[in-house]
Amino acid sequence: LLACKDQTSIASSLPSWHDNENSQRLFQFITDVSNTNNKLYVAPKDRIAVFDNDGTLWSEQPAYFQLLFAMDRVRALAESSPELKAQWLEQQPYKAVLENDMKALAASGEKGLIELVMASHTGNDSATSEEYAAVVTQWIKTAKHPSTGKAYTDMVFQPMLELMSLLREKDFKVYIVSGGGVDFMRPWAEQVYGVAPENVIGSSVKLEYEYRNGNPVILRRPKLNFINDKAGKPIAIHQHIGKRPILAFGNSDGDLQMLQWTDANSLPHLSAYIHHTDAEREWAYDQDSPIGQLKQGLTQAAEKNWLVVDMKKDWRKIYPNDQNQ
Amino acid sequence: LLACKDQTSIASSLPSWHDNENSQRLFQFITDVSNTNNKLYVAPKDRIAVFDNDGTLWSEQPAYFQLLFAMDRVRALAESSPELKAQWLEQQPYKAVLENDMKALAASGEKGLIELVMASHTGNDSATSEEYAAVVTQWIKTAKHPSTGKAYTDMVFQPMLELMSLLREKDFKVYIVSGGGVDFMRPWAEQVYGVAPENVIGSSVKLEYEYRNGNPVILRRPKLNFINDKAGKPIAIHQHIGKRPILAFGNSDGDLQMLQWTDANSLPHLSAYIHHTDAEREWAYDQDSPIGQLKQGLTQAAEKNWLVVDMKKDWRKIYPNDQNQ
Ligand SMILES: [Ca+2]
Ligand SMILES: [Ca+2]
Question: pLDDT of B96-134, one tens digit each?
């Protein structure tokens, strides 16, 4: 009888998940902690759920989508300013972008890519927070992914959308805790994920306040403020939320510390990895991938019995517009 | 009839406020923005209210309460370690605290006071976030204010407690945005103010994540990370919340930028100052006070027609245990 009841509920609340051991474990955890009569009950104020974004809520291949945004932005800025174009054609990593030289781009390393992401916001100057949000909003509305041709917001994971909806129904506070830029995610996270701006935690650049002729603005400076990755994730969770999550989802070694931090919560908790196993419907990669590397994390997940979601086996569909399987 | 209705509502929702022009303006704003039929209606997701803490939600004389905590802490740590005591008796600003020499303490300046607040957390070492929270919790339960003899949590402003309750009833998201330490406020802000840890924004120290024999901890380092004052306030609001408030309360020039930022919201909004005018029931100070200086702010409030709450004239009582006037 209980099994039947759970089956029904997975089918109605998580219809894009196959009803199997993994989805049952996840569903059981959510119902247990939100049931006042269960010994695993957790008060709503402590029902904190955190989700990595790239590779956990949407795809991240062949490059982080924010990097693809930065590249589109460099091209657009170069088109609008012959001077900037001439300057950038002499300067890596911009030259690599303008010449579509992915090998040279990769050779610029993490530092080059970060510079690209930061500088490309605005060319050489600073943008106000509102100007930047407008650029992101316009891009996310119109840009297409280079290999699928889909809109980026059509490359979010339908099973995760259902999971976040279920959690909110059960009075969880759902946060995004991503290495991506906080101001890159906020303009569309509410509409796409149902996650309000104040629940988005990410990497950030230095900001400056300026009182321009009586009109206050916040300027984004092309200088890193905080990288929300690895040990930065539990630190950002502490700075922003001030308590440990009871549920955490990630997909790479960059999420390991966030999952450890959640795993050491004295309240009932669940740490979980999304494992990219579906080369046909999405991408298959783990320990050898330069993007979303998952190596230590898989080892530790096995040792600690964390949930490891197998995208190929566990999900009926990946993207919202896919057919069920 | 309308006046009657409003009178009744101020009396029932804000009983510690005198029913006058100031409370009516405040009450009217709150009811207008939360009334779907009013042209000033604002959707719940955008009903962001921010409150400074020291001097806005509780008293701040003769010194910021967190500084009094730090001084108590220096004394307690010195008592528990003769070595530390010997060291500190040779070193300002610790020497001043141990010798109760307020003049020498003041002479150590802002830098000295910040060092005191940071180092006093833990002596010379770092504490984990949990250890620090336990120390704060114990102190706030037992410490008494040096001149009133009251518990510090009995020196919060009853009219502001009522205001925050009313705002939450009206689906506002209520935040504290304080120059005080975020980890100093969070352990008691929920119980005292009804403000959950994730809605407390403050100054912070550098944090480090450490995986101690399989037990992850977050260590507080005695090094400043962010000072949430002046231009830092709108910046922190942007980093943490990602949108402009529609209601902001402060009491000093340190809140001026936060009030400007709110005042430039394209949605209906109200910026407000608490003016300390009651030497008898609390303290009276403004432009010449080294603590909570309010000078530029008063000028700009007059120019921009911000609400200026006069504690003496507008509040029937100051502290929860006072008699009504
Ligand atoms: Ca990821
Ligand atoms: Ca203040």
Answer: 999 999 888 888 888 888 888 876 665 556 789 999 999
Q: Which domains does chain B have, with CATH numbers?
A: 2-62+150-204+226-314 (3.40.50.1000), 65-122 (no CATH)
Helix (H, G, I), strand (E, B) or coil at A162: helix
How much of chain A, in percent, has pLDDT values that exceed 90? Answer: 85
Give the mean pLDDT of A64-84: 92
Question: Among residues A54, A99, A109, A111, which one has the least CA distance to residue A74?
Answer: A99
Backbone φ and ψ of B110, nearest 5°: -60, -40
Separation CA A69–CA A133 (nearest Å): 13
The Cα of B204 is separated from the nearest Cα of chain A by a number of Å equal to: 8
Nearest-angstrom CA–CA distance, A88 and A73: 13
Please check whether residue A222 is in contact with residue A205, taking contact to mean a CB–CB distance below 8 angstroms.
yes
Chain A residues with CB under 8 Å of B235 CB are 207-209, 218
Q: Which two tokens stand for residue A286?
A: 């783990």
* Interchain proximity B241–A197, CB inside 8 Å: yes
User: Which residues face A148 on adjacent strands?
Assistant: none
Peptide bond into A222 cis (omega under 30): no
C-alpha to C-alpha distance for A34 and A28, rounded to whole angstroms: 10
Which member of B242, B257, B260 has the closest CB to residue A186?
Answer: B242
What value of ipTM does the predicted structure carry? 0.95
What count of other Cβ atoms lies within 10 Å of the Cβ of residue A157?
23
Q: Residue with structure tokens 């196993």?
A: A277
CB of A267 closer than 8 Å to CB of A223: no
| Ligand 2 centroid, distance to B233 Cα (angstroms) | 11
More confident residue, A111 or A140: A140
Residue-level pLDDT at B6: 43
CA A197 to chain centre: 14
B178 contacts B195 by C-beta, under 8 angstroms: no
CB–CB of B238 and A200 under 8 A? no
Determine the average pLDDT of the residues in A159-187.
97
CA A35, CA A114: separation in Å to the nearest integer? 44
Q: CA-CA distance, A235 to A237, in Å (whole number)?
A: 5
A88-93, Cβ contacts within 8 angstroms, sequence gap of 24 or more: none
Question: What distance in Å separates the CA atoms of residue A195 and residue A106, rounded to the nearest whole number?
Answer: 32
The answer to whether the Cβ–Cβ distance between B207 and A235 falls below 8 Å is yes
Cβ of residue B242 closer than 8 Å to a chain A Cβ: yes
Question: Judging by DSSP bridges, how do beta strands B215-226 and B127-128 pair with one another?
Answer: antiparallel
Residue numbers in chain B where pLDDT is lower than 50: 1, 3-7
Mutate to test the interface with A, among B218, B243, B267 (most CBs of A within 10 A): B218
B186 touches chain A (CB under 8 A): yes
Query: How close is the nearest chain B Cα to the Cα of A263, in Å?
Result: 9
Query: Considering only alpha carbons, which residue of chain B is nearest residue A209?
Result: B231
Say if A257 is an interface residue toward chain B (CB within 8 Å): yes
